[in-house]
């Protein structure tokens, strides 16, 4: 295939035009704040309830975001009749119990990434969702950004040729007292950061057939940095690096015989990329406003559309893909020990 003369247009629907659902939030931490702020600023979704382990934290969160109902328990949110969909924003190791709480209460459920701490946990969540007959999805927000719709079209059109290689990194400096340093909260870079790397590599190259990895521990005992070499079906490779001890460019590259695609850092957030011909035929640039976590609303609009349509998940992030990501992360973790 010759180098394209222009990039495909993003087919992402207007988030503000999605049907309005009433959301309840579990947890009042960093991502919960950003999720609710993004919904309030960019969507027609309504956050009607928040639950916390403490009434005071729920009330402070509700006051910050103009939410009517503040509950001192998660049980109260999943039991509230006026909540259509529950968003789980608790630490990784709480995702399974909180997801079961919500699903068994019959609520549609959006669970922060990763779906569980292992693929075994993720499969338990998928089984509970099927049993309950409600919508369930991992909040892998990157999949719903317009940038990734353009990227998926380029891959489907084979604009990069083949075979493809992926090189990607995600390193961020964290203070010693951050949640990510705590073993009892399933800390470490794999579930928080490398989940984006593995999701990207699986999306570009398909299923993984072999995993090699090395890691070193941080002082708290969680993994501090990891380098992984994945072999994908057909023998293609991805090389991934993640660390908690420093800021790396956080770019992602897909290289093929026809063209290379370099996603600007941070590759998992709204932003741009450049597609450059391998044969010197020029380059094409995609840009979208780099609004960081203000972009969380794209996934909320998708959730609202799918639930309203009576669907149990989204084809852009089916539970099977979340489980496949955790299968690879489990294998990387094993290879590091
Ligand atoms: N999509 C993204 O870009 C993104 C970014 C960051 C994090 N995340 C994901 O979101 C989840 C939460 O991360 P975060 O950075 O928001 O964490 P955080 O700031 O520590 O907040 C987590 C919240 O969970 C609740 N919680 C329940 N059990 C807890 C426990 N045993 N220890 C501490 N908190 C507990 C707390 O709320 P209450 O006290 O109110 O109950 C706490 O505020 C993680 O799974 C992470 O992977 C996603």
UniProtKB/TrEMBL annotation:
Residue span(s) of domain Gfo/Idh/MocA-like oxidoreductase N-terminal: 21-138
GO MF term set: nucleotide binding; oxidoreductase activity
Stretches that traverse the bilayer: none
InterPro entries, per database record: Gfo/Idh/MocA-like_OxRdtase_N, Gfo/Idh/MocA_domain, GFO_IDH_MocA-like_dom, NAD(P)-bd_dom_sf
Keyword set, alphabetical order: Oxidoreductase
Pfam families assigned to the protein according to its UniProt record, in alphabetical order: GFO_IDH_MocA, GFO_IDH_MocA_C3
Keyword Oxidoreductase annotated: yes
Domain GFO/IDH/MocA-like oxidoreductase per the UniProt entry, residue ranges: 151-261
Keyword Oxidoreductase: yes
Family: Belongs to the Gfo/Idh/MocA family.
Protein name (record): Oxidoreductase
Species whose genome carries this gene: Microlunatus phosphovorus (strain ATCC 700054 / DSM 10555 / JCM 9379 / NBRC 101784 / NCIMB 13414 / VKM Ac-1990 / NM-1)
